[in-house]
Amino acid sequence: MIHESLLKYRNARFLWQALALMVLSIGLYLTQGGVRVPSGGTWQGYILGTIGALLIVWLALLGVRKRAYASSLGTVQGWTSAHVYLGSALLLVATLHSAGQFGWNVHTFAYVLMCLVILSGFVGVYAYASIPQWISENHAGGNRPELFSELFALNRQLQLLAVKSEAAIQLAVTSSIERTAIGGDVAAQLFGRDRSRFIRSGTASSGSEAVLSGNEDQQQIIDFVAARLPRADKAAEVPNLHELVLFLCRRQSVLRRIRRDIRLRAWLQLWLYVHVPLSVALLVALVVHILTTFMYW
Amino acid sequence: MESFKIAIVGAGPAGLSAAARASELDRKANLGSPGHVLLEGFGAHAKTIQRYQKGKHVMAEPGFLDLRSDVRFAAGSRERILEGWREDLARLRVNVRFNAEVTRISGARGAFTVHLGDGTSLLAENVVLAIGLEGNPRKLGCPGDELDVVQYQLDDPREYRDETIFVVGAGDSAIENALGLSEQNDVWIINRGKEFSRAKEGNLSAVLGAISDDRSRLGCHYESSIKQLRRADEAGPAWVAELQTPGGLVTVGCDRVIARLGAIPPRRFVESIGIEFPNDRADAIPGLSAEYESNVPGIYVIGALAGYPLIKQAINQGHDVVEFIHGNRIKPADHSLLEQRFLALPYEMDADTSIRQFQLRIPMFRQLNALAFRELIIESVMIAAYPAGALYDEARKRVRTAVDKLAASGRAPRVTRIIREGDTIYEPGDFGTSFYTIVDGEVTLEVPGSPSGAVTMVRGEFFGEMSLLSGRPRLERAVAGVACVVVETPRRTMVKLMSSNEEVREGIDWIFVVRELQRHFVPAAPFRELKDMAARVTSRKYKAGELVYAEGHKGECLFVVRSGGIALTRLRGDADAMVAQVRAGEVIGQMALMGDPMRRESATATVASELLEIRRPEFGELMRRKDAQLGPLQDSVSQMLVENARMQVRPEAGSVMSFLMDQGLGEATDVLVINEDLCVGCDNCEKACAETHDGVSRLDREAGATFAKVHIPIACRHCEQPHCMKDCPPNAIRRSETGEVYIDDTCIGCGNCESNCPYDVIKMVYEAPEKPGLLSWLFFGAGDGPGEQPGYKPTEAAKARGRKAVKCDACIGLAGGPACVRACPTGAALRLGPEQFIDLVEERKR
Ligand SMILES: Cc1cc2nc3c(=O)[nH]c(=O)nc-3n(C[C@H](O)[C@H](O)[C@H](O)COP(=O)(O)OP(=O)(O)OC[C@H]3O[C@@H](n4cnc5c(N)ncnc54)[C@H](O)[C@@H]3O)c2cc1C
Ligand code: HEM
Ligand code: SF4
Ligand code: SF4
Question: Are residues A128 and A25 in the same domain?
Answer without folding.
Answer: yes
